Records
---
Amino acid sequence: MTDFATIAPQLEGQAIELPSWAFGNSGTRFKVFGSPGTARTVEEKVADAATVHRFTGLAPSVALHIPWDLVDDYAALRRYAEDRGVRLGTINSNTFQDDDYRLGALTHTDAKIRQKAIDHHFECIDVMGATGSRDLKIWLAEGSNYPGQADLRGRQDRLHESLSAIYDRLGEDQRLVLEYKFFEPAFYHTDVPDWGTSYVQVAALGDRAVVCLDTGHHAPGTNIEFIVMQLLRLGKLGSFDFNSRFYADDDLIVGAADPFQLFRILFEVIRGGGYGPANPDGHSDVAFMLDQCHNIEAKIPGQIRSVLNVQEMTARALLVDRDALTAAQEAGDVLAAHEVFMDAFSTDVRADLAAWREERGLPANPMRAYAESGHQQQIEADRIGGTQAGWN
Ligand code: PSV
Ligand code: MN
């Protein structure tokens, strides 16, 4: 098997973008629990993301959600972030919290409502100009609840028209990233339910339109790594929203529900050239992001745990002896190929990663270092009054 020292250079520069909304309160439709120390402003969310980066060295950027993260001056927010050692990253649009969008936004039959939703995306593109963001991520809460309710095909056609208008507004270095999800909030049909539909829609736009794969957005049992392979093969895998799920779109800590699935996904990312430092040009176009909510656990350590899980599984996936694997595959040796794969998955890399971190001036154990730092107690004492951030 490949050893840790051989793969260590490939861990350099790994970057996992954090979602600003992970630092606000969240919950289910039954209850949103508040927790002491939760960010009250966009700035406090950015500061929390910077704290995760300071303890891990893995999270140099933070994604914003508009309008959850509306501010008057994005250039000032950008400076605020950069002063704390992080960048502002992906801008997520939101067409799911306005009464006008009850029956759709970019797919609505009413041209005025479609234009309102398109204008919202133009606003997001203006924000991207000020924040220096590359990606506009679009997830649509659109679909229908009852058979016969909607003209399925008409909605695809209108979606194409609306996305074209948005795509045409993007700058040369900007991308449109279209996320899919198989259900919720619509229950009968969703307008972008799967990678195939997302692919069809972005392929019709052009090279700078790509797919976002949220790991929580598939039916149980879906082979997600196969989708990763196919999208990379087609040059259309733009980004990940990493999280994990047991039942629905649970938004749990990545790797918590199924670490082996995370390993399999990362193996296909690396194998398909989607992992940055592994590329000859030292750069990949596939953005690693988290899309998570911390409903009952503390938010900053929840994000620390998540990025560490991604790093750990990346290291294990890099350990796969690809030559031995190919040889076994080509020889038709089923069990040998499986063993090569499982050997890497079964390797405990925690001590090596701890040493690797120490060499770079990072805490060997970021979870423990955060717990012992007093930072949590400090923000709980400081953040008194005001309204804690949440989904509004
Ligand atoms: C939708 O479930 C989603 O995954 C999209 O990425 C949204 O922007 C995000 O969740 C909001 O939490
Ligand atoms: Mn998502």
---
Amino acid sequence: MIYVVFCTSKLFLKNLFLVHSIFNTLKTLKIAIQKSGRLNEKSVEILKNCGLTFENYKSSLISSVTNFPLEILFLRDDDIPEYVQDGIADLGIVGENVITETKAKVTHLQKLGFGKCTLKIAVQNSSSIEKLEDLNGKAIATSYPVILENFLQSKGIKSDIRTISGSVEIGPGLGLSDAICDIVSTGGTLKSNGLKPFADVMSSEAVLIGNEAIADHPEVAELLQRIRSVLSAKSNKYVVLNVSKDNLQKVVNLLPGVKSPTVVPLFEPNWVAVHSVIAEADFWDKINSLKAAGAEGILVMPIEKIIT
Ligand code: ATP
Ligand code: ZN
């Protein structure tokens, strides 16, 4: 199929995808993910872990999944909410910060547990700003004016928001602003610019979003089920242990399993093997309690998927 489209850059891409979807009479589902950047690798990984097979994602704008009716669009993260809102893509994977900032009307389908970060206000180490009210009348540089404005409004504070698109952290040093509002992960960038974190504005992680009209589409439901089974498997471990029948009840009380633990007799009389699933979050506490309850030879294995 040959497309002839006369326009430029972002608009060009949007029109290209629009023309593509008009000609795509089979109405294959489309998911937009970041082309390159912090969310790209994990977005690709989660789709591959769902059993989807696709290639050439580095070099193309669109890639077809060979074993599921889905096409993947590779875009700048900032454009993803709008593409999903406008129905050019049916689904998207993007940070909550970008969704809030773009004010896109989309359905949040599933938090994905990666791309976690916090948007913070930071001030210079020597700053006289000590409490939130001290930000009244002060200039704050940010790439997230909408989120910052919402936050300040909710606290009844009026500041002068200066929107800049990058390198926000150099603002105070250049005398451009009294404070900044930016994504902070380790704090290293703040430190090297003589800044210190001052207030948390928003926590964010990557989420799967959907166009408001597509959410109950059967293929979306199938994909969502696969994504949830991958996420659930990731946050759990498969455990096999041996225990004497005398201690079995104590051990079983500690192991909920998906339904309940599997208990299998061992060749040695009065001993059984217990198979179960435990949550990653309280893994070490659980293992120590199991040992104290009489569990021996504990094997722990990763789980690929949990389908409930
Ligand atoms: P693009 O070229 O797609 O516009 P970008 O440079 O705007 O990319 P990235 O730096 O790749 O964006 O960040 C993408 C998203 O990753 C952010 O919007 C945020 O949700 C998340 N993220 C997680 N940790 C961080 C971090 N330490 N700094 C910035 N973003 C982070
Ligand atoms: Zn971006």
